[in-house]
Each structure stands twice: as C-alpha cells, then as structure tokens.
Amino acid sequence: MRKLLYIALLMAVAACTSKGVDQGEVAARAAKQYYDYLLQGDYASFVDGHFRHDSIPDIYREQLIANAKMYMSQQTVEHRGIKDVHIVQVKADTEKHAANVFLVFAYGDSTNEEIVVPMVENKGVWYLR
C-alpha cells in the first residue's frame, strides 16, 4: 500500500510541476512499475496495483497473490523467467480515463512477448484494469 501511495505522490508532483503532462506516459510508467513489482517478487504490490483492490475480500486478495506467484513460477519453467519489461507504446483516452499500454517481456530464453495492459485512472492514480 505504501508503494501505491508513493506512485500517487510521484504522479501528483509531475502534474504540479509541468503543464500538459502526457497521461499516456504516466499510465505507461505506472504499468511498468506494477510489472516491475511482479518481477521483484513483490506480489502484494502488484495485486494492489489493480483497480478497486481495496474492495475485495482478504481471502480473494490472498488468492490473487498466490496466482501471481504461480504465474512467475510458470514463466521460470517455460522461459527461464521474465528478465525485463519494456514499454513499447501507449494509447490513452484521457476523456474516458483509460489507456492500453503495450509492454514487451524479455524472457531468460531470449524470446520476447508483447502484451497489452489495460489501465484505468481514478482520482489521479493509474491502476491495472
């Protein structure tokens, strides 16, 4: 939760210090940060990066954390793990407070995979949808 507040604070500072902040870029950086949490093994922060994470029952949150751990274990078996995440592009609709962030996973077996990460903005914070 503290890390989520840190991201919100960074976004607020960026909004205050520069005019015309590219919300697509903010959404892309938030998406990358959430996936960096996943790579670092901080599964709780990854789960907390999802929209309305605070309104789910604790048992369901625990299951989501367990699923994130299993996903990373599966990637280790299939691809020798995810080594890095890169932002490729973002398509944002600021009027609808939504964005699609395109990330590339660089796997340990030298393969890459592009994924689309839907994001939603709520009260100045971008969340995984």
TrEMBL record:
<protein>
    <recommendedName>
        <fullName>DUF4878 domain-containing protein</fullName>
    </recommendedName>
</protein>
